[in-house]
């Protein structure tokens, strides 16, 4: 009931829509003005000064009261004008892995001839302060925690100012249509991926013409050069690099070959770790998910396609957006 009531208040009072396309410009009707706590104390003080001036017929008291009242009224205009016709555009929002902070970029600017000062832009988890010179734009980054894979929206954004005297707060509330993709978290200590065999079904040793094909369990006959020391430091398990000749096929990361008792999210985290490691080693690989096969391929774009498919797995768009 309360969430429904809040949505009605947002739509009617603050004119908030579920998602507003960027860029957008703040018109007069979307800027709200109210006194701050200091403004309320200031108004009560002026009222007391006015009563004292009336009671004792103090000409200088009237002059001082009306002078201060004029400053307070002028601050309403300046606070309102600071936000009027501000332009908000979408900035960069690079994908991140779940558990890492998301970075939402926003471009704030205006085309006026006067500077806009002491503007605060905040979300539920971040705040940024900016000063805009005349006819300028600036880029800010607002961080947010990530707790689930998939698309994450920036959420409610409040743009406000108490410029110039701190007596009046002008603000506007909006919900930009600005999202980023959250990849699955990377499994911290995964087992090595299955090694792919060459055309003859045999694996090969490390030679100048062989291609890196992944990691496998360490053998006593392996040389120290074959040990994957970075993977050993990360997982605590002794593993060796696996190489195969040019005729060998790519690595295959197959959802169906993982242990049946493994939860879906753990499967996604393990596959994501294998994909990231394969991309770092410039290996060709194929990712197989239920209803989706990506590859064989290599490189940054293939890495993004695979991680995107893993992030959107189980959603209606996990096939069409992969």
Characteristics of this structure?
322 residues, alpha+beta, five-stranded antiparallel β-sheet, 17 strands, 29% helix, elongated, DUF58 domain-containing protein, transmembrane, transmembrane helix, membrane
Could you characterize the architecture of this molecule?
Helices cover 29% and strands 28% of the residues. The protein is of the alpha+beta class. It folds into two domains: 2-183, no CATH class; 211-311, no CATH class. Strands 2-11-10-6-7 form a five-stranded antiparallel sheet. Strands 1-3-5-8 form a four-stranded antiparallel sheet, with no helix packed on it. Helix 2 (37-56) runs antiparallel to helix 3 (59-83) and helix 5 (264-280) packs antiparallel against helix 6. The longest helix has 25 residues, at 59-83. The protein is elongated, with a radius of gyration of 30 Å. Residues 197-209 have low confidence and may be disordered.
């Amino acid at each position: 009931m309360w969430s429904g009531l809040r949505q009605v208040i947002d739509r009617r009072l603050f004119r908030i829509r579920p998602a507003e396309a960027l860029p957008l410009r703040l018109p007069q009707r979307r800027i709200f003005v109210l006194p701050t706590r200091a403004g309320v104390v200031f108004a009560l003080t002026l009222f007391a000064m006015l009563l004292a001036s009336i009671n004792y017929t103090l000409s200088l008291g009237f002059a001082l009261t009306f002078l201060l009242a004029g400053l307070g009224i002028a601050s309403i205009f300046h606070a309102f004008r600071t936000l009027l016709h501000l332009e908000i555009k979408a900035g960069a929002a690079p994908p991140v892995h779940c558990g890492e902070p998301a970075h939402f970029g926003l471009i704030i600017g205006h085309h006026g001839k006067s500077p806009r000062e002491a503007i605060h832009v905040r979300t539920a988890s971040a705040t940024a302060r900016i000063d805009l010179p005349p006819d300028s734009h600036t880029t800010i980054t607002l961080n947010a925690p990530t707790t689930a894979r998939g698309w994450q929206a920036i959420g409610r954004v409040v743009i406000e100012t108490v410029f110039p005297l701190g007596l009046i707060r002008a603000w506007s509330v909006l919900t930009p249509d600005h999202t980023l993709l959250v990849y699955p978290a990377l499994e911290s200590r995964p087992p090595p991926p299955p090694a792919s065999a060459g055309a003859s079904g045999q694996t090969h040793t490390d030679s100048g013409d062989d291609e890196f094909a992944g990691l496998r369990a360490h053998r006593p006959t392996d040389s120290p050069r074959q040990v994957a020391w970075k993977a050993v430091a990360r997982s605590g398990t002794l593993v060796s690099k696996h190489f195969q000749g040019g005729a060998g096929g790519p690595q295959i990361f197959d959802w169906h070959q993982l242990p049946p008792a493994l939860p879906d999210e753990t499967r996604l985290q393990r596959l994501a770790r294998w994909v990231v490691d394969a991309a770092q080693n410039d290996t060709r690989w194929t990712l197989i998910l239920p209803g989706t096969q990506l590859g064989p391929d290599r490189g940054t774009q293939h890495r993004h396609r695979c991680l995107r498919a893993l992030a959107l797995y189980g959603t209606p768009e996990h096939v069409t957006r992969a």
